[in-house]
Amino acid sequence: MNEQAANAKTVTRLLFRLLPVQILLASVNSVNGIVSSYFASNYVGVEAMSAVGLYSPIGMLITSVNAILVGGSVILSGEYMGKNQRDKLQGVFSLNLTVTSLIAAIFTLILLTAGLFDLTGFLTEDRAVRQLLDRYLIGQAIGVLPLMLGGSFSSFLSLENRGKRTLTASIVYIAVNVLLNLLFVGLLHLEALGLALASSLGLWVFLGVQIQYYLSGRSFLRVRTGALVWRECGEIFRIGVPGALSNLYQTARGLIVNRLLVVFVGSVGISAFAAANNLLTVVWSIPIGMLAVSRMLISVSVGEEDRQTLADVMRVMFRRFLPLQGLVSACIILCSVPLTRIFFRDPSEPVYMMTVWGLRILPLCMPLSIIYMHFVCYGQASGKHALVHLLSFLDGVGCVAGFTALLIRSLGVNSVYIANVLNGVVTTLVIIAYAWMKKKRLPRNMDELMVIPDDFGAPPSERMDLSVRSTEEVVRVAEQVQRFCLERGVDSRRAYLAGLSMEEMAGNIVDHGFTKDRKPHSVDVRVVHKGDDVILRIKDDCVPFDPVERQKLAEGGEIGKNIGIRLIFKIARALQYQNILGLNVLTIRI
């Protein structure tokens, strides 16, 4: 239990170290929505807010397609990282950027055509709103390419442990977006066109800050046309579509809900829903950021067949992420009135109280959405396609649109808000029911709730997990590794060499890695007896250290230096090193 707790603690530290950057990244588009809504409601009028709301499903469609490409590529890249297949990793990176650029060009052409030739009649019959929407589409078209490529680069920068660059790009984008809105909307009075141009040009700046790292030549991932494997497109879409189906369904949901609001409430209902929704998109960046860091670790764990870490990610979600999101949601509910005044200041207007109730009800669905998103991501990575499709349909269309249609006659716009909460309840119950159906009983632990296959990874009888936190523990753990090998029937020579390898490498990490800073560290060791192999996996969260590169340097150096590394390379059948999400991962086969 102590070793499991140590692994869970390492996972928790890693997730929370990556979380701030991912939340800020997820909030980029959210801040864009709030800034646009603020300038629309205060500088243009309620009709402009309606135009922003009507564009929302279109933006969701673009985001959905991008989510397919990013989600499929990141999960596939994580699996290749877990398997140390670097050439395939480069191929996925190159393929993602190529396909993303092509699809972005298609969306750009569609938006420009619709805006220039007034093809938006299917969205609204209000002539004033329609004219604003046409101009809004033209401005948004300019930002499609940087929006989609920015999402890809952000995820790949995280895989390269360069999240700070994305953080910088996000801050710069927010500042540029606000300044351009003041210029285009506040001073030049470009109205809807100015709203869209400000965000689009800001996205180009966002992309420019990110791409500079890849142009500098310092990145591990590089575009290589020779590495393109077009058949991998099918794999990216196969993996990415289930997880992004919810977004695709949400596009349809947005169109349905907007139509219901127009018929039963009027354009004021769309304005209220758009205001509440756009404000809450910033808060939604928290669960989206939580999912982003979990998705990276889930995909790597699936590639490594690391059962313990896979379950620990979900434990962190339940024990840390859910309470944190619950606290944030409570704060939003308490501040619903002052937040509403950002957009609407007259309490006598119907749109005012409609927005207040949106900010009181919608936050309740956010903690439940974290459960849904994590299980969709896990199902996506582990091939549970039936569960992913079912959850995506329920979340995207079935529950929200269905409950809204049932309740809107009696509850008006509040039906949309309540439907979102009921959606979270239903999807959570479906996750439990799925595990119950597969296990023939209510799930009693995390493995059963996740329905992890019995043959996934090495069974407990064939593996041992240990942690090293001090120099004194190195020798003890080395003895435990040797004893484990002997008990599994491994010959005494290889059992001794396995213990020696662990002692040399873990001792090196403790002596040098632990002393580089004042942060608490641990070395997580896993020894697996699989077939005729003894496999040691040594993982730590210290500064990056590649023993493979160090060994190359040692070959031409003094004989008395780097003796431990030289010895391990003579002992091991194979040795692989990776730095995954800021963790050093060394795999040794004896």
Indicate the topology.
Layout lengths: L1 H43 L1 H37 L3 H31 L10 H15 L2 H16 L3 H25 L3 H25 L16 H33 L2 H38 L2 H28 L1 H5 L9 H12 L4 H17 L2 H27 L2 H26 L6 H5 L12 E6 L2 H17 L4 H22 L9 E8 L2 E8 L6 H9 L7 H9 L2 E7 L2 E7 L1
Antiparallel strand pairs: 1-2, 2-3, 3-5, 4-5
Helix pairs in contact: 1-2, 1-6, 1-7, 1-9, 1-10, 2-3, 2-4, 2-5, 2-8, 2-9, 3-4, 3-5, 4-7, 5-7, 6-7, 8-13, 8-14, 9-10, 9-12, 9-13, 10-13, 12-15, 13-14, 13-15, 14-15, 17-18, 18-20
What would your notes on this structure say?
With 590 residues, the protein is an alpha+beta fold. The chain folds into 2 domains: 2-447, no CATH class; 461-589, Histidine kinase-like ATPase, C-terminal domain (Heat Shock Protein 90, 2-Layer Sandwich), CATH 3.30.565. Helices cover 75% and strands 6% of the residues. The protein contains 20 helices and 5 strands. The chain has helices spanning 2-44, 46-82, 86-116, 127-141, 144-159, 163-187, 191-215, 232-264, 267-304, 307-334, 336-340, 350-361, 366-382, 385-411, 414-439, 446-450, 471-487, 492-513, 547-555, 563-571, and strands at residues 463-468, 523-530, 533-540, 574-580, 583-589. It has a 5-stranded antiparallel beta sheet, sandwiched between helices. Strand 4 (574-580) and strand 5 (583-589) form a beta hairpin. Helix 1 (2-44) packs antiparallel against helix 7 (191-215).
